[in-house]
Design brief:
Elements lengths: L16 E3 L7 E3 L3 H13 L4 H10 L5 H7 L15 H8 L8 E3 L4 E3 L9 H13 L19 E3 L7 E4 L7 E4 L2 H5 L8 E3 H18 L4 H37 L5 H42 L12 E6 L5 E5 L4
Parallel strand pairs: 5-9
Antiparallel strand pairs: 1-2, 3-4, 6-7, 7-8, 9-10
């Protein structure tokens, strides 16, 4: 069986490789595509998340694997998608062990090492796989079972009380939130809400993605807005400086008795107004920059690139409704 001996049996070489002209059953690096693959692994190894890598590739107008294949004569009815890189295509590369020089082929997934030149070393590849595993359900930098990430955030939709986090029966490795008002004050005060912690986390991620989509800020939009604010600040500052110089001149004239107090105060008011306008735009810029930084953090959490604990301060309340719906109230400035 060819796969057992490290012979490449696929119909098309993975992106970054091509079939040797002298032996179509052997992979060799494609001079151009291999550079792209190595860059993807370099970014991932340096801690860049999949979403950020996708954005980098698209901003650089780097051709996708299918686009690159078409430019090299690929024919046939292939789906081009939206012609952009996406998370799935990047993650496929980052999890494909072929790039370590190993072939894993056939129904039995026969693995043969050192069959072709690697585009990434095994240690780097394995470290990236471990990071993916850690992010599979990324809640906090610590273990989910040892820390109540949502402490004080989960609220009973029946009585409005804070719900307590408890461990599953027989010390099971799962947790739930429960309202104890019913036990303390009777069924007339609360019906006794209950929800599994994992369901709360799923609701947070689901509603977070909806929030991110609704308030999406692209890099281009952010840069354009900052450029516009900088221009407004520069123009406003110029107007203020002119008004300030005029006020200084009127101050001297007032001291020498050339103008009255009312005229002097009038130019002072104008200068103060111009300063207030400039300072207001500066404040608006700072607020927008903060809004964008919060959005970027929310976006990364929605893709599980950073821990959920990083945005707990953005969650106001998590309301467990009697109909079992979970409503998230965000504590995020517009």
């Amino acid at each position: 069986m060819k796969a057992q001996h490290g012979t490449f049996i696929g119909p098309r070489a993975p992106f970054g490789y091509r079939k040797s002209e002298s032996n179509h059953e052997k992979l060799i690096p494609d001079p151009k595509a291999a550079i792209i693959v190595r860059k993807i692994f370099e970014l991932a190894a340096n801690g860049t998340g999949v979403t950020a890598i996708v954005r980098y590739l698209n901003e650089k107008d780097i051709p996708t694997p299918i686009q690159y294949a078409r430019s090299n004569g690929l024919a046939g009815n292939y789906d081009d998608g939206n012609r952009d890189w996406n998370s799935r295509s990047v993650k496929y590369i980052l999890t494909n062990r072929t790039y370590t020089g190993m072939l894993v082929q056939g129904k039995e997934k026969r693995a043969v090492a050192a069959t072709h030149e690697p585009l990434v070393d095994t240690d780097t590849f394995d470290a990236i796989q471990r990071s993916f595993q850690a992010k599979a359900f990324n809640l906090t930098t610590n273990s989910q079972s040892t820390e109540n990430v949502l402490k004080g955030k989960v609220v009973c939709g029946c009585c409005g009380g804070k719900m307590q986090r408890k461990r599953g029966t027989n010390h099971a490795d799962w947790y739930f939130f429960t309202c104890i008002t019913k036990n303390r004050s009777g069924a007339g005060k609360c019906i006794g809400m209950y929800v599994r912690e994992e369901d709360v986390f799923r609701a947070i991620y689901h509603q977070l993605k909806l929030y991110v989509n609704e308030h999406f800020i692209s890099d281009l939009q952010y840069k354009q807005e900052i450029r516009s604010l900088d221009n407004n600040i520069a123009q406003s500052d110029q107007q203020y400086q002119e008004a300030f110089r005029n006020a200084v001149q009127h101050s001297e004239r007032f001291i020498y008795g050339e103008i009255g107090k009312e005229d002097f105060r009038a130019v002072q008011v104008v200068a103060n107004e111009k300063k207030a306008i400039r300072d207001g735009i500066i404040t608006s810029k700072a607020a927008y920059e903060k809004q964008y930084q919060v959005f970027r953090k929310l976006l990364k959490v929605s893709y599980k690139e950073i821990a959920l604990s990083e945005i707990v301060d953005c969650i106001g309340e998590i309301i467990i409704c009697p109909n079992k719906n979970i409503a998230i109230k965000w504590a995020i400035a517009p």
